[in-house]
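ok, trying the design again with the full structure, not the truncated one.
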């Protein structure tokens, strides 16, 4: 009876599922408690022995905890995957997945540009273990094919490229992977399951930094991996146990609370961001808006096939270059300057801040980074955000 009810809720609409699925109730509490304990004790030798053959047993919170499990059930259902495992950060989820799936001598083809932590991991860290990577612009399918070697094991990608938000043909890349028997991994932090679910497109493993939209309140650092039951059991029994980058119960509880409003937040982020992007498109100081789900963008046809909407994240470029970027950022009063995104608060950042100002010359790519502003549109009233941006643009 309870099981059937749980299944109905799992297949219900996104907000209904997030509100109820996986929640355990105690004394009729509408909010599940936090199991903050590190260990679980047994009444007898036999009870411990029996527990090992039961489907669900808890021993120690590094390995599994009921509060983590509530969030994991919701996240697996959200991505239409069989199972999920939480990690202490997005990077813990990424590194644990790479270490699980790759062995000495393996080769990875990674989309580029990619999140810098992932780039460092593949470019500088994993070579210590004899694992190598090539970085390819996935818009160029021929280059993806050309990069395949006899030891290639994995295609790793993000739905939107870092900073410039370029998209690639997901089914075409999945087809290449299937032809060559390669594992596909997608970091879906940027698009979120509100706009695209990679597993439905044939991707094998989905990763998120839950620190961004999934939590949405800028108060939890967390990561999650979603894949088949079998693969997730493999990761749970090896990397979770041995590397131990587990998410603490209180953080898992906060994540579950954030998820309860995920669908609503994403709708508002999307609507506000679209209005702001359209305003920026028409502004004389703005040379380009990098948001492929916008009609004006050259990748609109492809993007709108793959993503049901935009999120609150995109970037734009200023005619005035880095000086105008600095002036504009200094003139904003509601938007704050910060590296992350996906929270309730509006943020702004320029990838040019990663370039040493003393450096004498710039490549074309660096010059573009310097005139680019990334914007994370929060949940404030959009009229206030538009006024803030308009004022800053007039004074840059
Ligand atoms: C933030 C981010 C990460 C890293 O996540 P943390 O939770 O900060 O470790 C990975 N991938 C993408 C796309 C991100 O934006």
């Amino acid at each position: 009876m309870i099981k059937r009810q749980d299944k109905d809720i799992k297949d219900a609409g996104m907000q209904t599922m997030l509100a109820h699925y996986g929640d355990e109730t105690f004394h009729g509490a509408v909010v599940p408690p936090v199991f903050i304990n590190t260990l679980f004790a047994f009444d007898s030798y036999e009870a411990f022995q029996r527990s090992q053959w039961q489907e669900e047993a808890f021993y120690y919170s590094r390995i599994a905890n009921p509060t983590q499990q509530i969030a994991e059930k919701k996240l697996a259902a959200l991505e239409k995957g069989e199972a999920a495992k939480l990690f202490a950060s997005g990077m813990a989820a990424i590194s644990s997945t790479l270490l699980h799936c790759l062995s000495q001598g393996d080769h990875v083809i990674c989309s580029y540009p990619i999140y810098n932590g992932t780039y460092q991991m593949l470019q500088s860290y994993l070579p210590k273990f004899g694992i190598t990577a090539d970085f390819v612009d996935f818009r160029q399918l021929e280059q993806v094919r050309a990069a395949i070697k006899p030891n290639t094991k994995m295609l790793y990608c993000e739905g939107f490229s870092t900073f410039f938000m370029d998209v690639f043909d997901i089914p075409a890349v999945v087809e290449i992977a299937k032809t060559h028997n390669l594992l596909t991994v997608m970091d879906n932090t940027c698009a979120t399951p509100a706009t695209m679910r990679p597993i439905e497109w044939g991707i094998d493993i989905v990763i998120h930094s839950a620190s961004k939209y999934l939590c949405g309140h800028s108060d939890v650092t967390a990561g999650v991996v979603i894949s088949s039951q079998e693969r997730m059991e493999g990761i749970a029994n090896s990397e979770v146990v041995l590397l131990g980058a587990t998410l603490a119960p209180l953080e898992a509880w906060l994540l579950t609370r954030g998820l309860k409003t995920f669908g609503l937040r994403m709708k508002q982020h999307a609507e506000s961001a679209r209005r702001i992007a359209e305003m920026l498109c028409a502004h004389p100081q703005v040379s380009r808006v990098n948001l492929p789900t916008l009609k004006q963008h050259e990748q609109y046809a492809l993007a709108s096939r793959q993503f049901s909407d935009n999120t609150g994240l995109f970037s734009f470029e200023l005619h005035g270059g880095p000086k105008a970027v600095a002036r504009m950022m200094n003139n904003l009063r509601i938007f704050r300057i910060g590296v992350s995104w996906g929270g309730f608060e509006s943020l702004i950042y320029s990838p040019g801040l990663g370039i040493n100002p003393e450096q004498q010359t710039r490549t074309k790519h660096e010059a573009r980074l310097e005139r680019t502003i990334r914007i994370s549109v929060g949940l404030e009233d959009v009229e206030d955000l538009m006024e803030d941006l308009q004022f800053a643009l007039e004074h840059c």
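Keeping the full-length input from now on. DSSP finds 15 helices and twelve strands in the chain.
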